Amino acid sequence: MKLYYVLSTFIFEIYCGGPIVATVNLHMLYNDSKVFVDKPLKYSPEVTLMAYKNLFGHLQPKDINPLDLIDFINDHFLPVGTDITVCVPDDWKPFPKKLMSIKDPILRKWALSINAIWKKLCKQVHPKVFEHPERYSIIPLKYKFIAPGGRFREIFYWDSYWIIKGLLASEMYETSAQMILNLASFIEQFMNFRVVKNPNIS
């Protein structure tokens, strides 16, 4: 897993501080700035950067035709979401004993509705991310996880605290352990920093 961040400089050039992301943001190609950084690469960062320079290197970013830029993005990037697969938690059950023991019928119904959400929010990093980690902004994680939902498909450190509390109430101890192991893997992957990142994106 440590190999991922031998490649961090190239990934940074694509998704964080390089010319492509700067030009995309300048032209406001997307209503949500998260869209571009969630797009996996079709080719290596080096090949993608070279293609960009060959097409647009003679132009100032403001002079690049947005339609040409969109064509470039479509030719060199995959759609958002192709780095993540949906899943069902291994230990999910529709009627956990702990929740069924709630006496108030309204609160019990509410608790069961929360329990049902875990199936909808379960995600797993696609196997191809492990094969070509340099093509993805997402950090590869070994285990399934529960994402916050909405536009956030990644595991998030702060959200995970509250998610795990809910999982424990749903008696999903294996899923809770997998969440913790995923977060702990950040420390291994970022040995120089000894930190747990907030999201598992670069």
From TrEMBL:
| SUPFAM superfamilies xref list | Six-hairpin glycosidases (SSF48208)
According to the UniProt record, what class of enzyme is this? Answer: hydrolase
One of the protein's GO biological processes: trehalose catabolic process
Instruction: Name the InterPro entries on file.
Output: 6-hairpin_glycosidase_sf, 6hp_glycosidase-like_sf, Glyco_hydro_37
Q: What is its EC number?
A: 3.2.1.28
Q: Where are the annotated coiled coils located?
A: none
Q: Which domain of life is it from?
A: Eukaryota
Q: List GO molecular-function terms, semicolon-separated.
A: alpha,alpha-trehalase activity
Give the UniProt family note.
Answer: Belongs to the glycosyl hydrolase 37 family.
For this protein, the record's PANTHER family field holds:
TREHALASE
Q: What is this protein called?
A: Trehalase
